[in-house]
Automatic annotation (TrEMBL):
<dbReference type="InterPro" id="IPR051414">
    <property type="entry name" value="Adenylate-forming_Reductase"/>
</dbReference>
<dbReference type="InterPro" id="IPR045851">
    <property type="entry name" value="AMP-bd_C_sf"/>
</dbReference>
<comment type="subunit">
    <text>Monomer.</text>
</comment>
<keyword id="KW-0547">Nucleotide-binding</keyword>
<keyword id="KW-0596">Phosphopantetheine</keyword>
<dbReference type="InterPro" id="IPR011880">
    <property type="entry name" value="PA_CoA_ligase"/>
</dbReference>
<dbReference type="Pfam" id="PF00501">
    <property type="entry name" value="AMP-binding"/>
</dbReference>
<feature type="domain" description="AMP-dependent ligase C-terminal">
    <location>
        <begin position="333"/>
        <end position="430"/>
    </location>
</feature>
<keyword id="KW-0436">Ligase</keyword>
<dbReference type="InterPro" id="IPR028154">
    <property type="entry name" value="AMP-dep_Lig_C"/>
</dbReference>
<keyword id="KW-0597">Phosphoprotein</keyword>
<dbReference type="InterPro" id="IPR042099">
    <property type="entry name" value="ANL_N_sf"/>
</dbReference>
<dbReference type="Pfam" id="PF14535">
    <property type="entry name" value="AMP-binding_C_2"/>
</dbReference>
<dbReference type="GO" id="GO:0047475">
    <property type="term" value="F:phenylacetate-CoA ligase activity"/>
</dbReference>
<comment type="pathway">
    <text>Aromatic compound metabolism.</text>
</comment>
<protein>
    <submittedName>
        <fullName>Phenylacetate-coenzyme A ligase</fullName>
        <ecNumber>6.2.1.30</ecNumber>
    </submittedName>
</protein>
<dbReference type="GO" id="GO:0010124">
    <property type="term" value="P:phenylacetate catabolic process"/>
</dbReference>
Length: 433
């Protein structure tokens, strides 16, 4: 078994907890002493960093939300002088002020090493050629992966997004063995490669996919299309960027690097859920210098898994992201997650996992949900009764899971737009009526 930093990746649990406690104390002190926002939060709760005597004392500390970053835009949560910040990244700001994150030179080094761990974990090394087909710039995905590729010693191909024909040409000409992109774009690349009938001209063996939830069905489709192993990547800019958690070759949950992050999975009341139960992922950074984050509510819904893994690593593990707490749709008083709909669709033959959700209000001012889903190739027999049978089947399966009726619209494969970025799945038109 190959490791990048075996000392930390396979650390015994008691040693790891001691390391986490020492780093938690240091992080809390840095936030308290250098960030006015956190000092006010601590004082409001009547605590100081000296009150942290065990890891259980994390519960005494304040929560942090995305809105806190926007309220302190741009640099109000930085714990170091601006002269020590060597790079910033930022969100698009489409739902308000951008969230700006900063990095010291040590932060960049830490991040690169985490990414190199991830790449080693999925079987990559300095002999690989790695195509990074995501957006560079203020988005963390580009440079986050790029620095990790170089830290590993592999050849980086910074192809960025768009121009699919050119992306595939680079894969052929440069002998690309690993690729990083969103799963949505990966499916589009796969469709294009299949149409061009050039799969035997590619050298791909590993795909790293992230930035949006994706299903086991999508994994199988990507693996079959490219003849690769497809791995899930999780990250968020507030915690550093991509690579905070990553699948190993067991493909059984994502490892979160416990020497850098303290993990909580909490229910709606803020209590830690039992192992295997669903809750919101809350993370505390343990090594970030420029922007320490204490009990950051990610909004991502996941399950905490057993830390023991056949790969030998002892870090915390989480399930794939099951949805977003703030992506929850309320339809006639029923809570609906897009991931619930996806999980139903991937189990049904004759349809693909490409779908869109439309929310409207009917003439009676009642919410209506419509799921637009693509038919699989060869599913259309030309018989209207067969189409109707498939539509009724999908509607019935959705109702049994969602406890609400969903209209289903079947469309030809390729109808739903593919994208190089995050796929837009939900279209809420209720406010416009």
């Amino acid at each position: 078994m190959k490791y990048w930093q075996p000392k930390y990746e396979t650390m015994k649990h008691d040693e790891l907890r001691e390391l986490q406690l020492n780093r938690l104390k240091k992080t809390a002190a840095s936030a308290y002493n250098n960030v006015h926002f956190y000092r006010e939060k601590f004082e409001a709760l009547g605590i100081t960093p000296e009150d942290i005597r065990s890891l259980d004392d994390i519960r005494k500390l304040p929560m942090t939300k995305k809105t806190d970053l926007r309220d302190n835009y741009p640099f109000g949560l930085f714990a170091v002088p601006k002269r020590d910040v060597v790079r910033i990244h930022a969100s698009s700001g489409t739902s308000g002020k951008p969230t700006v994150v900063g990095y010291t030179a040590n932060d960049i080094e830490t991040w690169a090493n985490m990414m190199a761990r991830n790449f080693t974990m999925v079987g990559l090394d300095a002999n690989d050629v790695f195509q990074n087909a995501v957006n560079y710039g203020l988005f963390t995905g580009g440079l986050g992966f790029h620095y990790g590729i170089e830290q590993l010693g592999a050849m980086a191909v910074p192809s960025g997004t768009g121009n699919t024909a050119r992306q595939i040409e680079m894969m052929q000409d440069f002998g690309v063995t690993a690729i990083h992109c969103t799963p949505s774009y990966g499916l589009y690349l796969a469709e294009t490669v299949r149409e061009m009938n050039i799969i035997d001209q590619l050298s791909l063996r590993v795909g790293c996919f992230g930035a949006e939830p994706w299903s086991s069905s999508t994994r199988k489709e990507l693996e079959d299309a490219f003849n690769i192993k497809a791995y899930d990547s999780y990250g968020l800019s507030e915690m550093m960027g991509p690579g905070i958690a990553f699948e190993c070759q067991e493909q059984d949950g994502l490892h979160i690097w416990s020497d850098h992050y303290l993990v909580e999975v909490l229910d709606e009341d803020g209590e830690q859920v039992a192992e295997g139960e669903k809750g919101e992922l809350v993370l505390t950074s343990l090594t970030k210098e420029a922007l320490p984050m204490i009990r950051y509510r990610t909004g991502d819904i996941t399950r905490l898994l057993k830390s023991e893994c056949a790969c030998g690593r002892t870090s915390n593990r989480i399930s794939r992201i099951l949805g977003r707490a703030d992506d929850m749709l309320i339809v006639r008083g029923i809570n609906v997650f897009p991931s619930q709909i996806e999980n139903v669709l991937v189990r049904i033959e004759k349809i693909t996992d490409q779908f869109e959700i439309y929310l409207d209000r009917n003439k009676n001012k009642l919410d209506e949900i419509t799921v637009r889903v693509e038919l699989d190739e060869g599913a259309f027999t030309g018989e209207i009764k067969d189409l109707e049978s498939t539509r009724r089947l999908v509607e019935g399966e959705l109702k049994s899971v969602l406890n609400i009726r969903a209209n289903v619209e079947l469309v030809e494969k390729g109808t739903i737009p593919r994208t190089t970025g995050k796929a837009k799945r939900v279209f809420d038109r209720r406010e416009a009526i």
